Automatic annotation (TrEMBL):
Record carries keyword Protein biosynthesis: yes
Family membership: Belongs to the Fmt family.
Annotated GO CC locations: cytosol
All copies of domain Formyl transferase N-terminal, residue ranges: 5-177
Keyword annotations from UniProtKB, A to Z: Protein biosynthesis, Transferase
Stretches assigned to the Formyl transferase C-terminal domain: 205-297
Listed name of the protein: methionyl-tRNA formyltransferase
Enzyme Commission number(s): 2.1.2.9
Molecular-function GO term, any one: methionyl-tRNA formyltransferase activity
Species this chain originates from: marine metagenome
Length: 306
């Protein structure tokens, strides 16, 4: 396999398996770019991204510029004499000045079967909308959002029990395992496929407001939301002034007014059918099973969750 000079741009954990695979394939990772460190946790400590942490562990060159449009930053990238830029879950827009630098181009690994679910939250939106399948797409980047020509795509089924975490892990591994085939493909640009915009859908980012459960929705839709937001940010309801996240739930045929507790085992009626939480996390507490939760939190039959 040909060795390419590659600038790797990634931030989230989703990108790490691909960086590992590129090193395993003996590619020349000349630098690793990631979003700037953020303050996190209660102490507001500055924390590096998963990609930077991995780069440090392997002794790779890394950087986290605030502004890719800065002339000095563009100049620095030009001086790397790149063959390829790989972008995965990076978080910053790549300006035209940088897209045109590498000899082969800039390529993105996206967590959906483009053109379905362009945008920031393709994995969550696929789960919420009940898609039966999803996958990964390698595309050659242009100045628009996720509209570039498709180099390679791989498909997997979405299991009814998949949540965001499990599906993200599957797709991250699928993307990483596909890199050898991708690198072979980019030698022949005439094999790229133009996206059909007629079939495009947009995966807008997950807003905090939509993570509060709406019991008027069908039980199946409620469970898909629980799965899509699990483990973070977490789908939730409020009880006695505390947020309670439901991290896992099962479907029940019991009926009742939406939001009503219809049994002593915390079965909650929805617009159609009902759900029974299996894993919960009360605000300020650790994740726990339904049985353990009920021992310390009595929510009586007939109570209506707002």
């Amino acid at each position: 396999m040909k060795e390419y000079r590659i600038l790797f741009m990634g931030t989230a954990q989703f990108a790490v398996p691909s960086l590992i695979k590129l090193l395993d394939l003996n590619q020349d990772i000349v630098n690793v770019y990631s979003s700037p460190p953020k303050k996190a946790n209660r102490g507001m400590e500055v924390t590096n991204s998963p990609v930077i942490n991995f780069a440090q562990s392997k002794g790779l060159n890394y950087s986290h510029p605030d502004n890719l449009k800065d002339e000095l930053e563009v100049k620095k990238i030009k001086e790397l004499e790149l063959d390829i830029i790989i972008v995965i879950a990076y978080g910053l827009i790549i300006p035209r000045e940088i897209l045109t630098i590498p000899k082969k181009g800039c390529f993105n690994l996206h967590g959906s079967l483009l053109p379905r679910w362009r945008g920031a939250a393709p994995i969550q939106r696929a789960i919420i909308e009940g898609d039966k399948k999803t996958g990964i797409t390698f595309m050659k980047m242009n100045e628009e959002l996720d509209t570039g020509d498709i180099v390679l795509s791989k498909e997997i089924n979405i299991d009814i029990n998949d949540n965001y975490q499990s599906l993200e892990h599957q797709l991250a591994d699928l993307g990483a395992d596909s890199f050898k085939e991708f690198l072979d493909f980019i030698e022949t640009e005439n094999s790229f496929i133009r996206q059909n915009n007629i079939h495009a859908t947009y995966a807008r980012k997950i807003e905090k407001a939509e993570t509060k459960l709406n019991w008027e929705e069908s039980a199946k839709k409620v469970i898909r939301r629980i799965n899509a937001y699990s483990p973070n940010p977490g789908a939730w309801f409020e009880f006695k002034g505390k947020r309670i996240k439901i991290l896992e739930a099962s479907l029940s045929d019991k009926q009742g007014k939406a939001g009503t507790i219809v049994s002593d085992d915390l079965t909650i009626a929805c617009g159609d059918q009902s759900i029974q939480p299996q894993k919960l996390k009360k605000e300020g507490k650790e994740e726990t099973s339904l049985d353990n939760f009920l021992r310390g939190n009595k929510i009586e039959k007939g109570y209506v969750i707002q």
